[in-house]
């Protein structure tokens, strides 16, 4: 173990000073023997120890024994730390390749990926498991997570066809045109990056070139939903899809999404911020007022409100949630499928062109 630790340290030291390079070859030979379960060159090990302990032997000979033991402990810690660091680098790299984030449990914390609202993973983190005394669970959960990531590598390389993941009763921002390709968004009405993506889509004219539809996916949290009224808005969107307004140039559910994502109230506050901070009763009143403004009669508004609270809509939302989690496998909101790929997180105007 000491030889392996010495090699790790000497790699870095030899990179900045030629003084240590004469030890590096011996350290590598010793390390190679250890990892192939052969005895190490004890002369090299003793040379390194003598070099480190010589000053102490001159001043405090009685401390040489304990210091030698301490060196062995430090060597073990260096090796374990290096192995764990390498594991974390590999895990982060694979996650970044597959999911566009180096941390599946909190995708927003990874600065290397696109900006997004993360879908929380309720599985305890490695550190949380250790703090609770669950050592087996800490390693088991971590290795299981890495195994899931490796098993998802083929999905990163597959050709993504939005048509294969369409929800029931899909509605389109513009009239459906069979000559155009289909693009599918996965959005949370309360996520600010979904707002930014919608604005990028309109700026790029993406919706003119694609049949654009969406899955509304309210992001769950440990005690409800990440954005308090996301489920409520999703219920209304699904109810409006089930009861489309005849003759509407743009479906009413898209009109409501456009208002939430692109418009402000009379105080200059984004309607998304207003909805996110409103009490459910106030949010409901807004959605009903907007529905009437976009052409629904009072009877139709009442019917949509009834359908929004129905088991039918609850089943649709549950099915869509399963579709997102078990088939699309994204960990970032928004995600959008187009051009044969699943794009995780906020997509720039340039990439939408």
In short:
This protein has 353 residues and is α+β, with helices and mostly antiparallel strands. Helices cover 59% and strands 8% of the residues.
Q: What name does the CATH topology of the largest domain carry?
A: Glutaredoxin
* Mean pLDDT level: 83
Can you count the beta strands? 8
Derived structural class: alpha+beta
Transmembrane segments: 69-90
Keywords: Membrane, Transmembrane, Transmembrane helix
Protein name: Thioredoxin-like fold domain-containing protein
3D structure, described in words:
The chain is α+β, with helices and mostly antiparallel strands and about 350 residues long. It has two domains: about 100 residues, no CATH class; about 190 residues, Glutaredoxin, CATH 3.40.30. Helix content is about 60%, strand content about 10%. The chain is built from 16 helices and eight strands. The strands form three sheets. Strands 3-2-7-8 form a four-stranded mixed beta sheet. It has a two-stranded antiparallel ribbon with strand order 1-6. The protein is elongated. The model has no long low-confidence stretch (mean pLDDT about 85). This is Thioredoxin-like fold domain-containing protein. Keywords: Membrane, Transmembrane, Transmembrane helix. It comes from Cryobacterium cheniae. InterPro entries: Thioredoxin-like_sf.
Name a few traits of the molecule:
alpha+beta; 16 helices; membrane; Glutaredoxin; elongated; 2 domains; transmembrane helix; 4-stranded mixed β-sheet; transmembrane; 8 strands; two-stranded antiparallel ribbon; 59% helix; 353 residues
């Amino acid at each position: 173990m000491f030889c392996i630790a010495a090699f790790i340290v000497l790699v870095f030291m030899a990179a900045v000073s030629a003084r240590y390079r004469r030890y590096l070859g011996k350290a590598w030979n010793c390390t190679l023997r250890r990892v192939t379960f052969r005895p190490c060159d004890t002369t090299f090990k003793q040379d390194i120890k003598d070099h480190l302990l010589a000053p102490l032997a001159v001043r405090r000979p009685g401390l040489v024994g304990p210091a030698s033991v301490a060196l062995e402990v430090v060597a073990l810690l260096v090796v374990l730390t290096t192995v764990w660091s390498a594991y974390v680098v590999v895990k982060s790299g694979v996650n970044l390749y597959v999911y566009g984030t180096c941390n599946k449990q909190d995708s927003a914390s990874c600065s290397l990926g696109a900006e997004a609202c993360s879908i929380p993973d309720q599985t305890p983190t490695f550190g949380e498991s250790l703090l609770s005394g669950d050592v087996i669970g800490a390693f088991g959960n971590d290795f299981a997570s890495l195994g899931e990531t490796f098993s998802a590598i083929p999905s990163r390389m597959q050709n993504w066809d939005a048509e294969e993941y369409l929800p029931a009763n899909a509605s389109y921002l513009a009239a459906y045109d069979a000559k155009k390709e289909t693009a599918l968004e996965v959005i949370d009405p309360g996520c600010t990056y979904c707002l930014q993506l919608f604005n990028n889509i309109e700026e790029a004219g993406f919706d003119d070139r694609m049949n654009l539809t969406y899955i509304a996916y309210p992001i769950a949290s440990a005690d409800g939903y990440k954005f308090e009224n996301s489920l409520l808005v999703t219920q209304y969107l699904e109810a409006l899809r089930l009861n489309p307004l005849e003759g509407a140039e743009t479906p009413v559910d898209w009109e409501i999404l456009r208002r939430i994502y692109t418009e402000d109230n009379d105080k200059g506050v984004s309607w998304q911020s207003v909805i996110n901070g409103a009490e459910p009763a106030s949010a409901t009143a807004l959605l009903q007022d907007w529905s009437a403004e976009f052409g629904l009669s009072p009877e139709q508004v009442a019917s949509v409100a009834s359908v929004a609270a129905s088991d039918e809509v609850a089943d649709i939302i549950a099915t869509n949630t399963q579709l997102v989690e078990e088939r699309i496998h994204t960990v970032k909101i928004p995600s959008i499928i187009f051009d044969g790929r699943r794009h995780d997180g906020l997509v720039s105007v340039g990439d939408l062109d």
